Every structure is written in structure tokens, then in C-alpha cells.
Inverse folding.
């Protein structure tokens, strides 16, 4: 498990397909049963997670990726349950150079839940990650993040875009 900076806060990353790592992540940050979102790098990784990308979702990706927009899309069968909520999986592509390098070098989707304990403020520095999580994870210290609002989370069903969490990206 590694904590790394993103365009908003520090995230906690594990191999999105490793069920034991996903359980450890949940134990460390205490997020309970909420689905865990992922960072991806490109269409090949997206195809490993989603059955389809509706045209409206593709349009949002073109306009806001890389960026702080997480999009929930129909999940492929067989994904770890920790990644799926109501048949959807949440993904985004980060513009932060450290986050992008991590996903690219790893070669697969990496989780991106915030690097803090559930209910605590999100971490904006490496020091805040260490204060919140101690030695529970490795740290890729990329300096301070911008903080502010988390990524905006939307679910796309056909032409319908449902805002699940308002955040850094303003959508009409």
C-alpha cells in the first residue's frame, strides 16, 4: 500500500485486482463497505474495468480528463466486490505527475481512496499522511497538494449523468 499525491489530496493505492490488498486498505482507513474508486491510464485499463463507455461519459472524459472528475460506469463481471457499487465502477485519470507515473509504471488500475482514516480530514501533505496512518503504508511524498474539494463523482447511465458527489469539477 502506498500513499501518493493527486490533484486534490493524497490517495491510498493498492493493486485494484488484489482482494487481500483491498481488504487491508479498508482495514487501514476504516472506510467500511463503500466502493473504492480507481485511477487509470488510458483506454486499455478502462476496458479492463467497464463493459461500456456511453457517449456522454466519453464526452466528459474528453473535457475533464486528466482531472478531478471520477466517473462511475457499468462494471465488468468478476471484478472484486470492493470496487463495485450497484453494478458500477468509479474511475478517473489524474493530471498529477506522481499519480500518473504510479499508475503507468504499475501497469494497471490503482485504488485512489483518500489517505486518511474515515471521518478524518483528507491529507494534503506527506506529513499529514504519516500523522494519520503512521507506518501502515509507504509514502511517495510529492509535496503539498492543492486540497480544496475532492473529485466530483458522477454516474453515467446512457445519456443520463447523475452527480453523486459535488467536488472540484463544476458540472451543470
Amino acid at each position: 500500500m502506498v500513499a501518493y499525491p493527486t490533484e486534490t489530496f493524497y490517495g491510498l493505492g493498492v493493486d485494484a485486482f488484489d482482494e487481500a490488498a483491498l481488504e487491508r486498505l479498508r482495514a487501514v482507513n476504516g472506510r467500511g463497505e463503500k466502493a473504492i474508486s480507481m485511477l487509470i491510464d488510458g483506454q486499455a485499463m478502462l476496458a479492463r474495468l467497464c463493459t461500456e463507455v456511453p457517449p456522454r461519459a466519453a464526452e466528459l472524459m474528453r473535457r475533464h480528463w486528466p482531472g478531478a472528475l471520477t466517473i462511475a460506469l457499468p462494471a465488468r463481471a468478476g471484478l472484486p466486490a470492493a470496487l463495485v457499487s450497484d453494478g458500477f465502477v468509479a474511475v478517473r485519470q489524474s493530471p498529477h505527475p506522481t499519480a500518473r507515473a504510479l499508475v503507468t509504471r504499475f501497469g494497471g488500475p490503482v485504488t485512489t481512496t483518500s489517505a486518511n482514516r474515515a471521518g478524518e480530514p483528507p491529507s494534503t501533505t506527506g506529513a499529514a499522511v504519516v500523522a494519520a496512518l503512521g507506518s501502515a503504508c509507504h509514502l511517495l511524498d510529492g509535496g503539498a497538494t492543492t486540497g480544496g474539494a475532492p473529485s466530483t463523482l458522477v454516474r453515467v447511465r446512457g445519456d443520463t449523468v447523475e452527480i453523486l458527489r459535488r467536488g472540484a469539477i463544476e458540472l451543470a
User: Anything to note?
Assistant: Helices lie at 19-29, 43-49, 55-64, 97-106, 126-133.
